[in-house]
What we know:
Layout: E1 6-8, H1 11-19, E2 24-29, E3 36-40, H2 42-57, H3 64-75, E4 78-81, E5 87-89, H4 92-95, E6 105-109, E7 112-116, H5 118-135
Antiparallel strand pairs: 1-5, 2-3, 2-4, 3-7, 6-7
Amino acid sequence: MDAKGRVSLPSDFRKVLEGAGSTHVVVLPQMNHPDAHVVLSQSGYEKVVERFEAMEVAGEIEGEDVEALALRIETDARQIAVDEVGRVVLSKDLREPIGITGEVRFVGRGSSFQLWDPGKRAAYEAGARSRSRGLAAKVRLGGLH
């Protein structure tokens, strides 16, 4: 990240945005980890909002839970322009809560990616690898057929 908070998006994500004709991304707090943000295309973000609203209509979430999730999904979401060379500006209010000060770690997650401070991500991965050893027996990996 440069001194102005600009960072280049991963090339694969830029290609998807270009193909969709999108000139911005949506950044919101990662739902289950306080040290990361998730970055989505506009259409990806719209799908998140649709799922959230469907959960509310179906009664899967209600009352204060609806408001708590709306705060994270709708209020805290930030639309950020992508410049002509594929960079975005991560403002101070986006960087500070997750501890990004100079470098940014991008972590792909299917149709989105996450933004992390590299040191926090390394610590998270170490803990996740440790936990995964206990979970590995639950996953059956098939071989080549």
